[in-house]
Fold:
Amino acid sequence: MVLQRFKYMLFILKIKMRLNILIGGKAGQGINAVSQITAKTLIKQGYFVFNYRDYPSIIRGGHNFNVLSISDKKISSHESRMDGIIALDENTKKIHKAELKKEGFIIDYNEFKHLGINLNVALSGALVKILGLDKNAFFNEVKKSIGKSALKAAQQGYDKHEQIYKLKKLNNKLDYMNGSQAVAQGAINSRIDLYFAYPMTPATGVLHELAAKQSKLSFKVHQPESEIAVANMALGASFTGAKTMVGTSGGGFDLMGEALSFQGMSELPLVVYLASRAGPGTGVPTYSMQSDLDIALRSGHGEFPRVVIAPGDPKEAVEKANECFYLANKFDSLAVLLSDKHIAESEFSITRKINKILPVRSCRRYKASSYEHDKYGITTEDPKLAVKNADARVKRYDAMKKECKKFEMIKIHGKKNSKNLIIGWGSTKGAILDAIEDLDYKFLQVLYMKPLSDDIKKEMLKAKKIILIENNVTGQLGRLIREKTGIKISNRILKYNSRPFTSDELRERLR
Structure:
């Protein structure tokens, strides 16, 4: 039976090497440790991985799970059907057994209950054995991540199960990064001076990443008492010439609205990292949606220039964070880096090198005001000056739009000559790319939401069928495109249950 199963698995792997392993249990049981130790072992063996995290808004207990996807080719999403389940409790088996494929395996916590705190390490060992990964590479990762004390449990887990797959070492040289680490790296590349944030899921990851590195890299991280204080302190720091960034999610961004208008009048450079989650209100606080595009584009009263940029993976997050700093400081403007929980907390294997880092200038101010003012910063209510300044803000935005054309405002993926055009943005990128792998589709990924690229309309006019894919209720990007181009996208695939698309689900809907 084991031999037949082994032959079947080898046959499947020859067709397409793609596995999805679900690791589930209660918060605090070490679910992330299982997926991360295994993922890092896989990365060092040259395999591409994607790790999706799913958890409720409670500190301990509840039901949490990760889906670790593995391939010998690039992947950026997870699927809905599982090749294996690692159950740290009974609930995981009950909830997810129906998702397990016919030939799938289960690693049961009952086999290792006696190991206590090292239960998760033993389960990792069992998974590594089943996958046929290099034992020494795994042990080295356990030693590095947890310590020598966990090696005995790792060995017990490894010895307990039989090998099913044989994942030989590949020559790919890969890194492993989540979106929060990427945004933090983009800020560091821009030589950030100050980061202000009040904790709010899913933006808190960047706060933690930067706080851990501030002493070594000579910048400062500060947590004020509220999001209102965050934005206003950041503008005060920007006044002194500091390169400044703030981070928050939708509810916190709402509170910053008045300060964003202050930025528009005072022209103090400001970068805002906005990591979306489901709303309105508290919504579904630990899950993901693309529902904050509208507020990113329009928050704050009055009319003033800004850029809004939405990366689709960690590599883009590093680069686009740098572009936000560059544009905000070059044009004394607001720059919003728009992401969401799915990018922020999912972990991706990264291959390509980061683009050349843009130098970011800074400038100390001597007078700034939230009132209309003359060229010396003196408050005025003169109607002629009000018109002159409004025209100057529009002119500055025109210059920003011209500068943005130097960067990747859109990307084209898939079959470049296809007449079937998918339009999407942000975290939908991974599932779309994996879903259309051998289908007749071109995918237009929008990176710059404001300004919007003129090339979008050109691509739409070449297509016979256009499909909009978004993780929100109303198709906010589609509405923005209609506003700018006059073209309505009638074919829409929208998902708004606060969960991201899986690539197999999306593939079926596209077919």
